[in-house]
């Protein structure tokens, strides 16, 4: 019984070898090869963009660590943004249109450095 | 043992386009042949192979030679991509959808090589997916049982069992073509 099963397995193996030899190995079409190479180019381009973004983020992190060592990046960034908002807000509120000072190079200065005593 | 792909994988990871092209030329046809037989169609097989190569590019940059043979990893990713697609297909498994050879077909009928190849393709497609994968790896790609076991994430004994059942299944399905397949 065991021998018969072994015989059958051997016959099946021999038939499988011959059957699988019938299968064709088709080469890649040039179009599909181009698609695969394009996927490589796309990945490379994405990596370069990712690399620049990562570099910028690392620079910002280093800057934040210098300003506020040990704190997460958002803390100095948030304080800077708040200070900027307060500054702009105060500047807008305090200075009205009349208080603006303008200097024109083509006009004669309205002041003199010569003292009245000298003249 | 030095992995024959190590240089090209490293090169592709560093941005060497020629190395990437060599990897495509060397492995693309093998992967496509397996995917085509696992999925039973050209379009889906090409999509699966494209997924595999995308994984390869991202993996290439972090590839460490010596941990696993690159080709083994590549076949494993390909088989997993095929299993995923077969699972997603779900409702119509290939085993049922595939055209199986008609058992009543007389063996002495004149059948040319192309028709025989088609019958083998159909018989293979009718096998359960893991048996099909084991047969493709060992009898088509020339992998050893141990290598197939590593690719499939199984023990060598489990692969041998899959192979034995696959061979028997193939033999039954190809019985009408027995005379043509005899030496």
CATH class of the largest domain in chain B: Mainly Alpha
C-alpha Rg of chain B (nearest Å): 18 Å
Strand content of chain B: under 5%
Strand content of chain A: under 5%
Q: What percent of residues of chain A adopt helix (DSSP H or I)?
A: 55-70%
Ends of chain A: how far apart?
Answer: 135 Å
Average pLDDT of chain B works out at 84
How many strand units of chain B? Answer: 0
Kindly state the mean pLDDT of chain A as a whole number? 79
Molecular shape of chain A? elongated
Q: What is the alpha-carbon Rg of chain A in Å?
A: 40 Å
Low-confidence stretches of chain A: none
Estimated structural class of chain B: mainly alpha
Which sheet architecture does the biggest sheet of chain A show? none
Tally of individual domains of chain B: 2
The CATH topology of the largest domain in chain B is what?
Rna Polymerase Sigma Factor, Chain: A
Q: Count the helices of chain A. How many?
A: 3
Helical region count of chain B?
A: 10
Please tally the β strands of chain A and state the result.
Answer: 0
CATH superfamily caption of the largest domain in chain B: RNA polymerase sigma factor, region 2, helix turn helix motif
Descriptive overview:
The complex is a heterodimer of chains A (119) and B (183). Chain A has 119 residues and is mainly alpha-helical. Chain A has helices spanning 2-20, 30-67, 74-94. Chain B has two domains: 1-91, Rna Polymerase Sigma Factor, Chain: A, CATH 1.10.1740; 97-183, Arc Repressor Mutant, subunit A, CATH 1.10.10. Helices cover 70% and strands 0% of the residues of chain B. The model of chain B is unreliable at 91-107 (pLDDT under 50). Chain A binds chain B through residues 8-9, 11-13, 15-20, 22-28, 32-33, 35-37, 39-41, 43-44, 47, and chain B through 12, 15, 17, 20-21, 24-25, 28-30, 32-33, 36-37, 46, 49-50, 53-54, 57-58, 61, 113, 116-117, 120-121, 123-124, 135, 139-140, 164, 166-168, 170-171, 174, 178, 181-183.
């Amino acid at each position: 019984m065991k021998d018969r099963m072994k015989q059958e397995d051997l016959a099946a193996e021999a038939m499988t070898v011959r059957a699988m030899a019938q299968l064709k190995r088709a080469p890649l079409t040039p179009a599909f090869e181009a698609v695969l190479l394009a996927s490589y180019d796309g990945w490379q381009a994405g990596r370069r963009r990712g690399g620049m973004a990562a570099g910028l983020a690392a620079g910002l992190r280093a800057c934040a660590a210098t300003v506020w060592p040990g704190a997460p990046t958002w803390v100095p960034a948030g304080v800077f943004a708040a200070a900027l908002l307060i500054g702009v807000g105060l500047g807008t509120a305090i200075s009205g249109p009349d208080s603006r000072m303008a200097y024109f190079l083509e006009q004669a200065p309205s002041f003199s450095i010569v003292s009245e005593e000298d003249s | 043992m030095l992995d024959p792909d190590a240089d090209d994988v490293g090169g592709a990871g560093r941005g060497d386009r020629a190395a990437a092209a060599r990897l495509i030329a060397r492995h693309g046809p093998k992967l496509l042949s397996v995917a085509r037989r696992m999925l039973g169609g050209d379009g889906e097989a090409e999509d699966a192979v494209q997924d595999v190569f995308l994984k390869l590019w991202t993996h290439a940059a972090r590839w460490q030679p010596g941990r696993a043979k690159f080709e083994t990893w590549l076949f494993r990713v390909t088989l997993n991509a095929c299993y995923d697609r077969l699972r997603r297909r779900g409702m119509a498994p290939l085993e049922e959808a595939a055209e199986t050879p008609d058992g009543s077909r007389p063996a002495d009928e004149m059948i040319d090589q192309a028709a025989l190849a088609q019958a083998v393709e159909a018989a293979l497609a009718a096998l359960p997916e893991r048996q099909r994968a084991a047969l493709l790896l060992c009898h088509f790609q020339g992998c050893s049982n141990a290598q197939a076991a590593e690719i499939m994430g199984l023990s060598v004994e489990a692969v041998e069992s899959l192979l034995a059942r696959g061979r028997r299944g193939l033999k039954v399905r190809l019985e009408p073509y027995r005379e043509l397949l005899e030496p």
